[in-house]
Amino acid sequence: MSDEHGTTRRDLLRGLAIGAAAAAATPVMHRLFVPPALAGATPGSGGPSGAVKAYVNFVINVQNFRYLDGSADTVIKLVNIFNKYGVKGDFYLTGNMAALYKASRTDAITKLKTQGICYHQRPPHPLFNGFDSRFTGAKSSELPGLIEQAETQALDMSTGEFSSKSSGGFKLVKEALGKAPACVAMPSEESTIKQAACEYYKSQGAKGVVWYHGEKSLGSAPYQYQYGLLARPSEIVIDKWKASGESSETLWWNRYSSGYPAADGKPHKRLEQRVMNWQGKRAPFVVCLIHENNVQRDGSDPWLYTFWKDKEKENPRTPPYNLDAEDPSSRRSDEEQTRILQAYENMVEFAATNYKVVTMADIVEMAS
After folding, report:
1. In whole angstroms, how far apart are CA 307 and each of 20, 67, 70, 114, 162?
2. How many helices (DSSP H) and strands (DSSP E) are in the chain?
């Protein structure tokens, strides 16, 4: 199966990479008191009165290797939106996507260098639950070497094996973008693996970690550390909610399939409403989350059946993986993509005008 623009994925994917992590102990959390500026006591950028009303972190997970040109085109459009309003988003790249962009879409690499760069993992990365047997079955003394291999060597997406002939994982993202990813994902559920992974990423220049997903009340201590990395604060999340006329929560971009939703279904209005209703004594930390494939593809992830046997992602496959497996997604129309991107731009513009848009690198600096 070829890319929407004719790129043959299998040739590009063979030998390209992502990486992993592991080993030892229970989480150690460190809290910092809130400085007066964070509580809104001193003026800052964002908001008509000058006081910071919310810190907004735009998060874009980059992962669509099956439609590489579509992925790169979307990333470039999103970067252009951020540049238009003088702010930055955090783009979470896998080692595999960095390798693919470097091989055939250097224009996307050039654009991304103006943004916040972070790192995450997708199968068959051995830090990902269900694909982590080489870590869970290893001795503690073996984990540092396994982590280094996974985060420095190219990962073959078909076999799940590593090759020292080319860079991969965290190292490749750092090399390709010219700076260490500020924040890293942490999908493993094993405490020893999580600790070892954090320690490795910190040694390589990372400053933050996605320690939890969804919303979490942080009270008076928004800066919480895990093994030396600042846990990404996420007190309000803008991705899915139940709007008027809906029976259940809906991902906001899916509301633009045939037109435009009512006001309470639009992301910038949701952002405004959540911040207005914030009851905390300081400005909240907001995460606005999207995956680049959400703009161009409708339905499940295009690579779902490459790595899992079921739609619920409960039964992982074993290698060799079929990179041309059935694609459960469908292409959104050009008109639908335009509506989604316009809604996203409206949210970025609103946040840039009324709040303080930050990257994880900014948050780390605030915490220090």
Report:
1. 17, 16, 21, 33, 17
2. 13, 17
- Alpha-carbon torsion, ordered 345, 348, 349, 354, to 10 deg: 160
Q: Is the pLDDT of residue 56 over 80?
A: yes
The pTM for the full model equals 0.89
H/E stretch holding 198: helix 191-203
CA distance 336 to 185: 30
Structure tokens at 322: 């079929």
User: Which tokens sit at 342?
Assistant: 């316009």
Cβ 186 vs Cβ 210: under 8 Å: yes
pLDDT confidence band for 37 (50 / 70 / 90): very low
pLDDT tens per residue across span 161-177: 999 999 999 999 999 99
> Using CA atoms, how far apart are residues 220 and 122, in angstroms rounded to an integer?
34
Taking residues 117-127, report their average pLDDT: 98
Q: How many CA atoms lie within 13 A of 63 on its CB side?
A: 23
**Two tokens at 228?**
């030396």
C-alpha gyration radius of the chain: 20
* Average confidence score pLDDT of the chain: 90
The DSSP letter of residue 340 is H
- What residue has token string 């972070």? 118
What share of the chain has pLDDT > 70, as a percent? 86
Hey, CA dihedral for 133, 137, 143, 149, is it positive or negative?
negative
Residue owning tokens 């910190």? 202
Contacts of 141 (CB under 8 A, 6+ apart): none
- 3-state helix, strand, coil split of the chain in percent (to 5) is 35, 20, 45
Residue 57 structure tokens: 């972190």
pLDDT in tens, 246-260: 999 999 999 999 999
CATH for 9-367 is 3.20.20.370
Where residue 32 falls (left for φ over 0; alpha for ψ -120 to 50; beta otherwise) is: beta
Q: What is the pLDDT of residue 141?
A: 87
